Amino acid sequence: MSQDTITRNMLDRLRGTKRSVLKEDMQGFGKAVEVTDDPMFGEKTLTTQKTTVSNALGVAVNWGSTPLRFYPETQDITLDGQIVELNNLRFQYRLKDPSGTGCYIWCQGLQLTDENLKKIGSIYSIYQNWRDEWVKNSGLLENFADAVKEG
Question: Is the confidence at residue 3, as pLDDT, over 80?
Fold first, then answer.
């Protein structure tokens, strides 16, 4: 399936989703812990996450003050960023989303050109890689939980 088809399918799905389903504040997930480059979270975990996603997107990403958050109660993790080049499009990756696809975007007034659709498709493709890496290294989340308890 081409990136264009994936993007169009994703947009069709988003158009049919009620806004209340897209929860920005992650209510009900317990208290979030900011993941930093502190050794308790591993070797430069935050920097590695930001660099990997930024490089894959090929555009500048504004990461804000707490882009990577861990939820010890559910052993979930989220990554949030904003792409200025795409009219300040915000994206969020969530590992344990109940839908199975924890890739969300928020934007106002973005023109859906072929180039912008490719970039949106890239956001989703990168999410899939991001999710797969966390699943493959799920022991890291257990280590995070232990470190937070001790911390």
Answer: no
